[in-house]
């Protein structure tokens, strides 16, 4: 059965599935593949590399697919011209996360571009609504990369109660298959945003060795903290911490963050060398608790189709399923 929601109608897409704008991983190839499958690919604007961003936007323009672009809001404040660069291309949406969306949302809306705001608390949801967000993403702490302190199961319905009708809410954090999509829709969400599941696809711009670690890991094999941010000299503002796969580096430094700060010059040099060599015993694989649900590396289009088909089957047979339990 078709999964038509307020999100699919708002963005004029076929399926209620969005690609998380993962820094360095969600490039033009991956974004275009998710959009071609009927979802919406969102390019990872990350920390604001203008040369990379121009190249990826050109590639997306050549693809002919609809797409969005995601920014770390506090990072975008350091290079606001990047938003102008994106708005000139008239994407379907701009996604703003982890900071004050207000000045950037207004510019996007004046350009006729939909504004997606990712939030991790009720206070953030209210601020995003006041800024004029067209769509909210409620992100639980299960997610990969950066987030705050609320789990998705309680955060999502509370955000929905706060928003009311008129603004679609998307669920993010720990979702990697149709069970997650079906659960999110039953809780009242209009769709899902997935990162880790799309990292483990053939099109994702991550290293094959990183993808293999995602496939081999289970949900117990991730950790949230500040170690990889300190090591990269990218200390994030409170309340945000980052989730990645456990490795020798996180095991060495978790709980010793103050000592790491004092040793960061030497450690950061070793870390950069490890990243260049794809040594993921030291370099971080940014992945969420959904790793335990991921068992293969497949095309992104297959991920979209399988997630939607499984969710549709579950929703169609929900009464029978409950009766059998």
Please explain how this structure is put together.
It is a single chain. With 325 residues, this protein is of the alpha/beta class. It has two domains: 6-205 and 295-323, TIM Barrel (Alpha-Beta Barrel); 208-276, no CATH class. It contains 17 helices and eleven strands. The protein has helices at 6-11, 28-36, 50-63, 73-76, 81-87, 102-110, 122-131, 152-163, 178-187, 196-199, 208-216, 227-231, 248-253, 257-262, 264-276, 300-316, 318-323; strands at 17-19, 41-44, 67-72, 93-97, 114-119, 135-139, 145-147, 169-172, 191-194, 222-225, 241-245. The chain has an eight-stranded parallel sheet. α6 packs parallel to α7 (122-131), α7 packs parallel to α8 (152-163) and α9 crosses α16 (300-316). The protein is globular. 48% of the residues are buried. The model has no long low-confidence stretch (mean pLDDT 93).
């Amino acid at each position: 059965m078709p999964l038509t929601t307020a999100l699919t109608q708002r963005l004029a897409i076929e399926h209620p599935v969005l690609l998380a704008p993962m820094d360095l991983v969600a490039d033009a190839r991956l974004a275009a593949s998710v959009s071609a499958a009927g979802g919406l690919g969102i390019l990872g604007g990350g920390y604001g590399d203008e040369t990379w961003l121009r190249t990826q936007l050109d590639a997306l323009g050549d693809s002919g697919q609809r797409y969005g672009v995601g920014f770390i809001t506090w990072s975008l404040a350091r290079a606001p011209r990047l938003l102008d660069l994106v708005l000139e291309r008239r994407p379907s949406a701009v996604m703003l996360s982890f900071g004050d969306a207000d000045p950037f949302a207004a510019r996007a809306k004046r350009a006729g571009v939909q504004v997606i705001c990712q939030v991790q608390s009720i206070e953030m949801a209210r601020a995003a609504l006041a800024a004029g967000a067209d769509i909210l993403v409620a992100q639980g702490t299960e997610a990969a990369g950066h987030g705050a302190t609320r789990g998705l199961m309680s955060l999502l319905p509370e955000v929905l109660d706060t928003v009311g009708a008129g603004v679609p809410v998307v669920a993010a954090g720990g979702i990697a298959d149709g069970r997650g999509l079906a659960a999110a829709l039953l809780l009242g969400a209009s769709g899902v945003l997935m990162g880790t599941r799309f990292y483990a696809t053939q099109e994702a711009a991550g290293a094959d060795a990183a993808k293999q670690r995602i496939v081999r890991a289970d949900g117990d094999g991730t950790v949230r903290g500040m170690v990889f941010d300190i090591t990269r000299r990218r200390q994030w503002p409170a309340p945000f911490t980052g989730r990645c796969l456990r490795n020798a580096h996180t095991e060495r430094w978790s709980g010793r963050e103050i000592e790491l700060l004092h040793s960061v010059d030497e450690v950061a040099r070793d870390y950069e060398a490890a990243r260049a060599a794809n040594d993921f015993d030291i370099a971080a694989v940014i992945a969420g608790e959904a790793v335990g649900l991921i068992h293969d590396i497949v095309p992104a289009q297959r991920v979209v189709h399988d997630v939607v088909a499984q969710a549709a089957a579950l929703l169609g047979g929900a009464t029978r399923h409950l009766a059998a339990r």
